[in-house]
UniProtKB/TrEMBL annotation:
Belongs to the prokaryotic molybdopterin-containing oxidoreductase family. GO terms for molecular function: iron-sulfur cluster binding; metal ion binding; molybdopterin cofactor binding; oxidoreductase activity. The lineage of its organism: Bacteria, Pseudomonadati, Thermodesulfobacteriota, Desulfuromonadia, Desulfuromonadales. It comes from Desulfuromusa kysingii. Residues 55-112 form the 4Fe-4S Mo/W bis-MGD-type domain. InterPro entries: Asp_de-COase-like_dom_sf (IPR009010), MoPterin_dinucl-bd_dom (IPR006657), Mopterin_OxRdtase (IPR006656), Mopterin_OxRdtase_4Fe-4S_dom (IPR006963), Prok_Mopterin_Oxidored (IPR050612), TAT_signal (IPR006311). This is Molybdopterin guanine dinucleotide-containing S/N-oxide reductases.
Length: 757
């Protein structure tokens, strides 16, 4: 920003009204991330207004399932949120939020919020009647007791919860279920499980470098990720690395906003990335461009991997598979191997395929054989859970005396489930979250009678809407805890109003950066909303009133006390805190020994080394080596990609008035040649369809997408029937079961056709 621009900004920022308007404009234009937090601070600090005096300031955190998990500063006057900003104390958030983050006040004060507990007379009818909390909870308690009475256990009660809010205390929902008895749990994750397993096989754990150390990289490949939209705060590190001379390469079938900022963009054929990585590996082997020191001392099975490459892989073959010219494959392989350090950001979008886990393993191998694992500025970056060592006291609840469950012991595996301790004899019943409809329809003895949805919106986020609807029709009661009348709420009997992040206390960490943020209650709960743990306490109270001893969850609960109880010595030591109260001064960063994951080369694999050859992978039904795995055979003429939008986080945010202004309607993007063969012109209404269903929306022609691809972004437009899930099936990804208890989902291995509406 130049001086005169800076002066103008300062002037605008001095007036609170124009300041807010300015921030709003910036936020909505997506330019906010470009304004340094320090400038916003400098513009007001010690000048005409000091916001410390004018407002009560609270610490908050964005609890959405997002790389960035932003630290927020909230400015309140007379009990009303006036505006929010990114916390400047976090070098990651760096004083800025994303376009969605800046819309939060519109979310809190949206007239569309669910205000009271309500009951729908006839699912899908829209005939909602207000209930008191007492009536709502009583109906729910009655149904739970009825199920126990009928079946002799509570396996007919199922929980489906995922990532609506990752605040640590929200694991109280799982605790609530455990405290009722043994129930059915939808396990796994629709998000990143194939890659998690892949990294566990290769390195023994998913662990990534601090994203802030990307500034040290000399070569960055962003492989199947779109941080310009999905992790806006990471872009400053990529830009800084570029400024210091790094080359940025983006590999994606779609020419994304991230690709537009790169030095080089490779439009790879979808789901052929494994071939590309292996082709690069073969070329490096031929050229002798291998880090022998790493391979010899810290890895296992490189010889077998080399043999595999020599026998099965050529650059010519890789070029044919991927659509990337052989010369380019050789060039980026050599550049990657020569740069020191070089890193690959392995995107979650890339692994949502039937061969997604295998592709991640091939890419990991490329990073490892060039000696970039364990290096500052290097790394096969995917994600981490190293800062998640809380107490999870809200979920540690024993089942009531005499509760009965599944007999086959330890049925739920993986690190990602928060389930009751159990009692040696019984466990919960795990089902695959990614096949919700199918599982509800198939499960018997006992059948699923009642479903509890919290932090989860399957009718917007799960495949095959028609199948899901059929499954929900078999359920006797559906309870949804949410903030808005979502597509899933439309299919519920009872809806309970949930607070927004500003109305409760919790604590947040990320799975990408290493920051910890407090989330303080900044305003009173709006209307009659309550948080997930408060609802659990209300339910426990009523269960025990109706049948003493039927629920072990606490019956009274203060969200702040529960937040406090989450902290322990491990967390304090890791973040250098004396007390959680220190976080009132701002978020804290983990005191890392090194910014590099695996800096000590002590891998957590069975051999303690990086495993090019993994027996564990073989034991789990995969190839021991990171071999090529074929993509899914097409089930329709065009591939359908439905990745994440700039304006929404899954089903959240796009329903707010700000977003509707900026992104008023859904769009399908297709290549002009594909459009031409179907007589489709720019801007016309089209029908995208396949065996499962259809959607109608506007067509946009662009060569940013390849000719074989239809691209539309997942999102919930509240005034439209548009739903990408009408078109998806529930095909599984190759990996995920090992660490998350269920395979991932092949979200991007979907096919459809298109014609004029
Ligand atoms: N087609 C397609 N489908 C996809 C994907 C894709 O790329 N394409 N991506 C997949 C991925 S990566 C993910 S992570 C999943 C996400 O799937 P979900 O986790 O289901 O998605 P969200 O829309 O983020 O959140 C679900 C609901 O939680 C509610 N909520 C927010 N805060 C709270 C709270 O504090 N308490 C309660 N009880 N509810 C709350 C929100 O209002 C929202 O309705 O979707 C997957 N589905
Ligand atoms: N604005 C915004 N930010 C978000 C989210 C959001 O919904 N909106 N969601 C959050 C969540 S839960 C997640 S999981 C992350 C997701 O973050 P990302 O992984 O960055 O995002 P996605 O949109 O899922 O997919 C990224 C890219 O993968 C590409 N892709 C699909 N198939 C292939 C393939 O076969 N090969 C290659 N090379 N690329 C492929 C898509 O074209 C897309 O551009 O973002 C988080 N941040
Ligand atoms: Mo996700």
């Amino acid at each position: 920003m130049n001086d005169s621009c800076q002066g103008m900004v300062e002037k605008v920022l001095r007036n609170p009204l124009s300041r807010r308007k300015f921030l709003k404009t910036l936020a909505l234009s997506g330019a906010m991330a470009m304004v340094p937090g320090s400038l916003l601070q400098a513009a007001t600090a010690g000048k005409d207004i000091s916001y410390e005096d004018a407002f009560e300031i609270f610490r908050n955190a964005c609890p959405r399932n997002c790389y960035d998990t932003c630290s927020i500063k909230t400015f309140v006057k007379d009990g009303v949120i006036q505006f929010i900003e990114g916390a400047s104390e976090s070098t990651f958030t760096d004083g800025g939020l994303c376009v969605k983050g800046f819309s939060y006040p519109r979310r809190v004060y949206s007239p569309d919020r669910i205000k009271y507990p309500m009951m729908q007379v006839g699912r899908g009818s829209g005939n909602w009647k207000r209930l008191s909390w007492d009536e709502a909870i009583d109906r729910i308690a009655e149904k739970i007791l009825e199920i126990n009475e009928k079946d002799g256990n509570l396996l007919g009660l199922a929980l489906d919860k995922y990532s609506g809010n990752f605040g640590i205390t929200h694991y109280g929902v799982e605790g609530m279920m455990s405290s009722l008895g043994y129930t059915t749990r939808f396990v796994g994750t629709p998000c990143w499980p194939a890659g998690i397993d892949a990294q566990n096989f290769d390195m023994g754990e998913m662990w990534c470098n601090d994203p802030e150390d990307m500034v040290e990289s000399k070569y960055i490949i962003v492989w199947g990720a779109n941080p310009a939209w999905c992790s806006v705060h990471s872009m400053k590190y990529i830009f800084e690395a570029k400024k210091r001379g790094a080359k940025i390469v983006v590999i994606d079938p779609v020419m994304t906003q991230t690709a537009a900022k790169a030095d080089m963009y490779l439009q790879v054929d979808t789901a052929t990335d494994g071939a590309l990585a292996l082709g690069m590996a073969r070329h490096l082997l031929d050229q002798g461009m291998i880090d022998r020191e790493f391979v010899n001392n810290h890895s296992l099975g490189f010889e077998e991997f080399s043999q595999y490459l020599k026998k099965n892989v050529t650059v010519t073959w890789a070029a044919k598979e991927t659509g990337i010219p052989a010369q380019v494959i050789k060039q980026i392989a050599e550049e990657f191997a020569q740069a020191d350090p070089a890193t690959i950001w392995i995107g979650y979008g890339m692994q949502r395929h039937v061969n997604g886990g295998a592709m991640v393993r091939a890419i990991d191998a490329l990073v490892a054989m060039t000696g970039n694992v364990g290096k500052v500025g290097g790394g096969a970056r995917y994600g981490h859970l190293r800062t998640w060592g809380f107490n999870y006291n809200a979920m540690v609840n024993a089942a009531p005396e005499g509760a009965v469950g599944m007999m086959d012991g330890a049925a739920i595996k993986g690190d990602f489930h928060f389930i009751g301790e159990g009692n040696a004899k019984f466990t919960d019943r795990p089902l695959n979250m990614n096949q919700l409809g199918r599982e509800i329809l198939q499960t018997q003895d006992p059948k699923i009678r009642m479903l509890w949805l919290a932090c989860r919106n399957p009718f917007s986020q799960d495949p095959d809407t028609a199948l899901l609807k059929k499954a929900f029709d078999t359920l006797e009661m559906v309870v949804v805890v949410d903030q808005f009348f979502t597509k899933s709420v439309e299919q519920a009997d009872i809806v309970l109003p949930h607070t927004t992040l500003f109305e409760e206390n919790t604590v947040n960490v990320g799975y990408w950066h290493y920051w910890l943020s407090l989330n303080e209650q900044a305003i009173k709960p709006m209307y009659e909303s309550r948080s997930d743990v408060q609802i659990a306490a209300m339910l426990s109270k009523r269960m025990n009133e109706r049948q003493p001893g039927s629920c072990t969850f606490p019956t009274e609960l203060d969200t702040r006390k529960w937040m406090e109880k989450e902290f322990n010595k491990g967390i304090y030591d890791l973040f250098g805190l004396n007390s959680w109260k220190d976080l009132r001064n701002g978020p804290a960063k983990a005191k890392l020994v090194s910014s590099a994951a695996w800096h000590d080369f002590k891998f957590k694999t069975p051999s303690g080394k990086y495993e090019f050859k993994s027996e564990l992978a073989a034991q789990n039904g995969h190839k021991a080596l990171p071999e090529f795995k074929q993509k899914r055979a097409a089930t329709g003429p065009l591939r359908l990609l439905t990745p994440h939008s700039k304006f929404s986080l899954h089903s959240q945010f796009q329903n707010l008035d700000f977003m509707e202004d900026f992104n008023p309607e859904p769009i399908v993007y297709l290549h002009p040649t594909t459009a031409k063969t179907r007589d489709i012109e720019e801007g016309v209404q089209v029908r995208v369809f396949n065996q499962r269903g259809q959607v109608e929306l506007m067509a946009r022609l662009t060569d940013n997408v390849p000719p074989d691809v239809l691209l539309m972004y997942e999102a919930w437009f509240k005034n439209s029937d548009f739903n990408v899930q009408n078109l998806l099936d529930d095909e599984s990804a190759d990996m995920g079961s090992f660490k998350t208890g269920a395979p991932g989902i092949a979200t991007h291995d979907q096919f459809a056709n298109i014609q004029k509406a």
